# Entry
Amino acid sequence: MSSPKASTRTKAAAKAADVKSGARKPVAAKAKSAKAAAKPSLKEASTKKAPAQVDPSPAQKAAFLKAMAAGVKLDSAASRALVKKKGSPFAATQEAVNAPAPAPKVEVLRRIPAPAAIIDTPESKTALALAALIEKAIDSGDLGKVQPHAQQALVAALCKLYAAHAEAGERFNILGQRSATVAATDVMVVCGALLKAVDLQVFELGMWQSWSSG
Amino acid sequence: MAEQFVGKASEFKDGERQIIRIGEDEIGVFRHQGEFYAYSNFCLHQGGPACEGLTIARVIEPLREDKTSMGLHFSETDMNFVCPWHGYEYDMKTGAHIADPRVKLRKYDIVRKGDEVYVVA
# Structure
């Protein structure tokens, strides 16, 4: 009769003998050997040829360029780099961008006529010469050149002339562009003097203006 | 920059103006004392129609030797045009603002070919 200790020893010895002979393999060892079989060795990898590259068809190339062009800003360095050869769809787009822009058209918006021509009558010419003479006298500082009686005659004549024109419906700016050369103080001094000369008060002028269109 | 035909000089009276549009530019073309001038119609102040206002001789104030004023007068040589919005005044020959000559309207070159007038824009 054998002891239980002796039987366990014989079982372990038999297991070890199986492993040695390859009849029985532990699970971890099985997985390792499977991996080794699937993976080529370094030598094999270096000698193995990669599958041959197939050139894309012209249609595929065109589709690729179109897709690229869609995301690239035209006339940029990137777009210029994309244009490899003429005839590609992108080259056509780029050519359209590079083409000279059509000349803009001239559109006449408004035509502003020249100011109305001045009709020079002999009397107007004389009046202009007199005005220039008076201005020259003021510039020289010699105010005595045009004596008061002459000024009175001129102012009276001009008052009548302007009023006659206004009554005839020919209203115009009394100073015109020359208003730029007459000081507001000068105007107030002259207006006040004119009112005083004919014994009018400022409120009477106000009433006149409120009643009439003057 | 290309030459754009504006009109015939013979149909452009002295003192007359034309406001034209070339692309996005609005330009005022003047004829003054036989010469043509073209400026941008956008006032440098607030973008008003600078070339469509009054044309007026420059107001000058000569001084005596003692530096007292001889009064205000119209210049016999210089002409200005005034923006109708706020009165910015520009020199007809240069497009420079009267008070501050550093401020200038954009000037366009004028080319005359016989009777034809072109603006370079």
Q: What stands out?
A: The two ends of chain B are 5 Å apart (CA to CA).
